[in-house]
Specification:
Strand content: 15-25%
Shape: elongated
CATH architecture of the largest domain: Alpha-Beta Complex
CATH superfamily of the largest domain: 2-enoyl-CoA Hydratase, Chain A, domain 1
CATH topology of the largest domain: 2-enoyl-CoA Hydratase, Chain A, domain 1
Structural class: alpha/beta
Number of domains: 3
Oligomer: single chain
Radius of gyration: 33 Å
Distance between the termini: 81 Å
CATH class of the largest domain: Alpha Beta
Number of helices: 17
């Protein structure tokens, strides 16, 4: 016991202020996220880059390493990738293993440091068409001017990077550092790893590279030491390619999904239409998540909205109030999931950068598709089909339960007064009742009636029957 007490007192004394014993501080390993950019730069590469950067930002990662091996790709996708890299607040490193040509040069130039494999090459970044052909001379001039200005802007404070990348973009640019001509006019600059690491100027600085490492792990060990880092590696899978299709088809998926849910809502029965609607909208969420647009929060809001809709359909009939609130949450969450929002970014920044323009257009198009398909189905599908359950007029032989109906229809409804009926849905206070196999909109003026309970028709209004509960 005395020995334990002595050890405890020794520890406390060592930790006390002014103690001669130095406290040992254990540094936290650097959190590193590795994102592969392989083969042609296209939309799947944008998706995994954006998703990886957002996850790294939200997770507090210190460093993102882009593992690059690409011959180039689409300039529009490249510009979006450059914008995404610029939004990450930590350190970004490009590891050229073993080529970063054309679009790969632009992406590398956006990072904090550019490292090379021993056989790495970078350069030849003149803009070309989607198929690799030369673009129109005027358009090429505009693109070259814009790209050079963009590279100068992002390369400030990074040595010779702006001059070097400009020489890779424009054949008419001469690269001259301190009187030494590195590239003459008439050709595009490309560099090997050794050439990128060659030093110029006073004090000497590498032309472009921050270092050469035989592997990505060796790079991290050189920077952070053995055991000085924790790595999370992302991989491009089939889901990124599927997400390209899902995002292109999102307005159609939205339209069909919303139409299916509306049918389930009107039928007061979840069934196949409800499952189909939720499945279609889930595909929209999946595409947005894989594309790096949506996090998990919109899914939670959507689920709350779906629960409200289910409560309206299955248990309560509140004249549509719960259903309307649920549909509002579901639509809002869909809009949220399609917007390119970044962790810790104020919502006002998203509005100012037009992050909601495309989502609003897709959501509006989806609503238009749902309305158009619904109207076409009501117009062209044969009577007696499922729409007999959707439209009041179909259940009563016409537009019988609407204001301004024909006298014949009014007489038909009037003849039901005094008849017994069965509550086809719960009446809280509105719902549907069934008489002779036909459904009618109805409401109870006092209290509520559970589904399956008998009621008596006491009168009618312009919008349905007025009923009251009776003993079975």
């Amino acid at each position: 016991m005395r020995r334990c007490l002595s050890i405890l007192l020794g520890i406390l004394a060592a930790a006390a202020p002014g103690s001669a014993t130095a406290a040992v501080t254990v540094a936290r390993p650097e959190r590193v996220v590795v994102i592969p950019l392989r083969d042609e730069i296209a939309t799947p590469a944008l998706y995994i880059l954006r998703r990886g950067l957002k996850e790294a930002e939200a997770g507090g990662a210190d460093v993102v390493v882009l593992d690059i091996k690409t011959p180039g790709g689409a300039i529009d996708v490249t510009l979006q990738m450059m914008e995404a890299i610029g939004k990450f607040h930590g350190t970004t490193i490009a590891y050229v293993d073993n080529e970063a040509m054309s679009a790969g040069s632009f992406i590398s130039a956006m990072t904090t440091e550019i490292w090379f494999a021993p056989d790495g090459i970078i350069g030849a970044a003149a803009p070309v068409g989607a198929g690799g052909e030369d673009v129109d001379a005027t358009m090429k001039m505009k693109l070259v001017s814009y790209l050079k200005a963009r590279m100068r802007a992002v390369s400030e404070g990074k040595g010779y990077r702006g001059q070097v990348i400009s020489a890779m973009i424009d054949a008419d640019t001469e690269l001259n550092i301190d009187g030494q001509v590195i590239k003459e006019k008439g050709s595009l600059l490309s560099l090997t790893a050794a050439e990128a690491m060659k030093t110029y100027g006073d004090p000497p600085r590498p032309l472009l590279g921050a270092g050469i490492a035989p592997s990505l792990d060796a790079l991290l060990t050189q920077k952070f030491g053995v055991g000085g880092y924790e790595v999370q590696r992302l991989e491009v899978t089939w889901s990124e390619r599927l997400a390209v299709f899902l995002n292109e088809a999102s307005p159609v998926l939205l339209g069909l999904g919303m139409l299916s849910l509306f049918i389930a809502f009107k039928l007061s029965h979840f069934g196949g239409f409800g499952i189909a609607g939720l499945t279609l909208l889930a595909l929209v969420f999946l595409g947005n998540f894989v594309a790096g647009l949506s996090g998990h929060e919109p899914v939670v809001v959507f689920a709350v909205g779906a629960v409200l809709v289910l409560l309206e359909i299955i248990f309560f009939h509140t004249a549509g109030f719960l259903g309307a609130a649920g549909l509002g949450l579901m639509l809002g969450s869909l809009l949220w999931s399609m917007a390119d929002l970044w962790p810790k970014e104020p919502i006002r920044v998203a509005w100012s950068t037009d992050a909601f323009v495309r989502p609003l257009a897709d959501l509006g198009l989806g609503l238009g598709i749902a309305i158009a398909l619904g109207a076409a189905a009501l117009r062209f599908l044969p009577r007696g089909w499922i729409w007999d359950r959707l439209v009041v007029g179909a259940t009563s032989g016409g537009a019988a339960q609407l204001a301004g109906v024909s006298p014949e229809t009014g007489l038909d409804l009037a003849s039901l007064v005094g008849r017994r009926a069965m509550a086809a849905t719960a009446l809280r206070p509105g719902g549907q009742v069934e008489i002779d196999g036909r459904r009618f909109e109805a409401k109870v003026e006092i209290g509520t009636v559970a589904a399956g309970m008998p009621v008596l028709v006491r009168g009618r209004s312009d919008f349905g029957l007025v009923v009251e509960s009776i003993e079975s």
